[in-house]
Every structure is written in structure tokens, then in C-alpha cells.
């Protein structure tokens, strides 16, 4: 039996908060879904919330019930699993979920495949809209898959919950009219192109090593390719499968004894390429693959330093600002700062295009990016 939703007040507060973040009221079908699928049923009794200082603070339902319920029906992400102060699983902010569902544009009787079940809340919304029998969802982590299945059952939904590698999709239920991802990707896996029908839609948060931001909204073409544009929203955890995230152990080993970097200066500010301009960071991420960055404000040599490193740990760069100039040190087969500075300058001379002017054409062999139109 389907459980009754919670009292109207917190649900209406959630819808009001979602509308404020979206800039418009949620479409009627998703407002109905938010009222019918109780978000609190998809959260554990212990969660972690942003503390306002860049970290996360634990919140236990038994000890802080008001704070826990506020989080359950607020428009903020809620971390459900934390390891070494790094989120491993979370419930996305409802407004972000609704943006994804709006972009997906599901209609009656569509068959949908979700990648990254997580808590199962987004799955429940899809079930309410399309019907349980038309929804399949894939989760890599067996524990998360079991918990999501239990959460969904408690809310009255029984979709196909599959424990497996999301990059492989789920061929048993193919072809799908819609594929929607709850984790970010650096490329479209070939299996997704195979399992979505011609004319079907793929909605996937995007990530580059430089910047996890943006959402791809693409259509699968008759020739097995997919073409689409990016939307300026979405910042999700990366898909946990080979080829979709960096090797952390390699990243830790980028600095080694005996390295002699090439030293120079630059006129491009490190804040221009790695500051608060997400459009700039997004463009750099597309143009300079497999390069990540990190700020260091505790260096003895300079007031602030921007580190750059390749995912394969063969190349690195550091940009120092000592109050007078920007000094650059680069090591390895790639001159990472030169690549990043060139990408930023190209973006700047193109009149600083916004995220939604960029697009992608994906084939089973790889992806190509474009500005304004393919080619």
C-alpha cells in the first residue's frame, strides 16, 4: 500500500523553495510528483549538511529532529554518506532534480532508464510520472541499491532496480525513450547510445577534470550518434567507473624528487581561469582535457598558488602571485598552464560565450565539442 505523504506544510515549503530557485513554479506534473513522493522516506536518520564554511556537519534525526526535517524539505542537497570528509552519496537539491526532469520532457508511456539510483527519490518521481513498469534504474553500489529499493517500496513504488555499472546501462530493458543520469560523466558511454532509441533523449550532468558543471541534453540520431547542447546547471558527483573519473592515487603522486620545472611569467590571472566564472571554467574543461586544479593559500613562496596537474600525473604546473606578478612553473610533457591560458584567451576573444552556446556530438568512438552549431 502506498504511504500517505507528510503534512502539507513541509511539502508546500519544498515546492515554494524549489520555485524560488527555478525562477518559476514547477510544472504541474512535477508539483504533483513532489506532493506524492515523500522526500523524507529517502533519507537516512543520519545525514550531513553544509556548515557554511566549506565542510559538512552531522545531523541526527533523533538528536536534531527540527534541523533534520528542515533539511528533508528544504531546497538543498543532503549528503547521505561521508568518507574522510568527502561526500560519497547525496540527495540532490529538489530544484536541481526538477530541472533535470524538465529537460528530460517525459511523456506518457515513455520507457526511462536512470543511471545512478542514489537514495531513489528521483526514481520515485519518475515512477509517479511514468508508472513503475516503465522505469529502470542502475546503481553501482550494492548497499545503495538495496537501500534505494527499500526506500522506494516504502513509498509504494517497485521499478526495476539493477545493481551494476551505469556505464553499461541495462540492455534487458532496451530500447529506452529516455536516459537520465544522476551522476556526471566526461563522455557518453557507447552503451547509452546503443540502448536509447532513435529520437530518444539523453540528459546527463557533465564533468571535466577542470570543472564539474553543466548538463548535456542530447537526442539520439538514426546513425547511432547523439547531438545536443549543454544547459548551465547541475554539479553532480562523477560516475564511479573507469574512464569517467581520475585515478586518485596517481593524482597524489604528481610531485616527485628531482623534477626541474620550466619557469616563466604570465599575464593571465589564475583567478580568471579558476575563479567564480563557471562559464570560463566550463569552456576550459572542454578545451583542456584531463587537467585538474587546486588552490593553495599556505605556500611559503607566494601569497597564493594555483596548482594544475594532469590526471595521469605526468605533468604539473604552479602559478604563484606574490602581489606583483604571476610566476609560472611547469613540468612534464604537457605545458599545462600554456594550454589553460590559451583556452581562456580563445574563450575571451570569442566574446566569452555562455555554457548554453556549447554543444556535443557523440559517437561510439568519442565526442567532439562545438560552439553554436556542429562544425
Describe this entry's structure for a reader.
The chain has 375 residues and is of the alpha+beta class. 29% of the residues lie in helices and 28% in strands. The protein is built from 11 helices and 18 strands. The strands form 4 sheets. Strands 7-6-5-8-9-10-11-17-18 form a 9-stranded mixed sheet. The chain has a 5-stranded antiparallel sheet with strand order 12-16-15-14-13, with no helix packed on it. A hairpin with a 2-residue loop joins strand 17 and strand 18. It is globular. The N and C termini lie far apart (53 Å).
Q: Which outline best applies?
A: globular
Mean pLDDT comes to: 92
Beta content comes to 25-35%
Structural class: alpha+beta
The N- to C-terminal Cα distance equals: 53 Å
* Individual helix count: 11
* N-to-C SSE string, H for helix and E for strand: HHEEHEEHEHEHEEHEEEHEHHEEEEHEE
Which regions are unreliable across 5 or more consecutive residues at pLDDT < 50? 1-5
Biggest sheet strand line-up: 7-6-5-8-9-10-11-17-18
Helix content: 25-40%
Tell me about the largest β-sheet.
9 strands, mixed
Radius of gyration: 22 Å
Number of strands: 18
Amino acid at each position: 500500500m502506498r504511504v500517505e505523504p507528510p503534512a502539507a506544510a513541509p511539502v508546500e515549503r519544498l515546492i515554494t523553495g524549489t520555485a524560488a530557485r527555478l525562477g518559476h513554479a514547477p510544472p504541474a506534473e512535477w508539483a504533483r510528483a513532489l506532493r506524492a513522493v515523500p522526500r523524507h522516506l529517502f533519507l537516512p536518520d543520519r545525514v550531513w549538511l553544509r556548515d557554511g564554511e566549506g565542510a559538512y556537519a552531522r545531523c541526527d534525526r533523533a538528536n536534531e529532529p527540527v534541523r533534520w526535517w528542515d533539511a528533508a524539505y528544504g531546497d538543498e542537497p543532503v549528503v547521505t554518506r561521508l568518507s574522510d570528509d568527502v561526500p560519497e552519496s547525496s540527495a540532490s537539491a529538489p530544484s536541481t532534480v526538477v530541472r533535470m526532469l524538465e529537460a528530460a520532457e517525459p511523456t506518457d508511456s515513455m520507457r526511462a532508464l536512470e543511471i545512478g539510483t542514489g537514495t531513489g527519490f528521483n526514481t520515485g518521481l519518475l515512477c509517479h510520472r511514468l508508472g513503475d513498469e516503465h522505469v529502470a534504474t542502475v546503481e553501482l553500489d550494492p548497499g545503495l541499491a538495496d537501500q534505494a529499493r527499500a526506500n522506494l517500496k516504502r513509498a509504494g513504488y517497485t521499478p526495476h532496480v539493477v545493481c551494476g555499472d551505469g556505464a553499461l546501462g541495462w540492455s534487458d530493458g532496451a530500447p529506452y525513450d529516455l536516459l537520465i543520469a544522476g551522476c556526471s560523466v566526461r563522455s557518453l558511454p557507447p552503451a547509452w547510445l546503443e540502448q536509447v532509441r532513435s529520437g530518444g533523449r539523453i540528459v546527463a550532468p557533465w564533468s571535466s577534470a577542470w570543472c564539474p558543471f553543466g548538463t548535456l541534453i542530447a537526442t539520439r540520431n538514426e546513425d547511432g550518434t547523439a547531438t545536443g547542447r549543454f544547459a548551465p546547471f547541475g554539479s553532480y558527483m562523477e560516475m564511479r567507473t573507469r574512464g569517467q573519473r581520475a585515478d586518485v592515487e596517481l593524482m597524489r603522486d604528481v610531485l616527485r624528487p628531482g623534477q626541474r620545472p620550466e619557469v616563466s611569467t604570465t599575464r593571465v590571472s589564475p583567478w580568471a581561469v579558476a575563479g567564480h566564472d563557471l562559464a570560463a571554467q566550463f569552456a576550459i574543461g572542454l578545451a583542456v582535457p584531463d587537467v585538474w586544479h587546486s588552490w593553495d593559500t599556505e605556500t611559503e613562496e607566494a601569497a597564493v598558488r594555483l596548482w594544475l596537474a594532469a590526471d595521469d600525473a605526468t605533468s604539473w604546473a604552479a602559478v604563484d602571485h606574490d602581489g606583483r606578478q604571476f610566476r609560472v612553473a611547469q613540468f612534464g610533457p604537457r605545458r599545462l598552464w600554456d594550454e589553460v591560458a590559451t583556452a581562456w584567451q580563445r574563450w575571451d576573444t570569442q566574446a566569452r560565450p555562455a555554457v548554453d552556446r556549447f554543444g556535443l556530438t557523440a559517437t561510439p568512438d568519442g565526442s567532439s565539442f562545438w560552439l553554436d552549431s556542429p562544425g
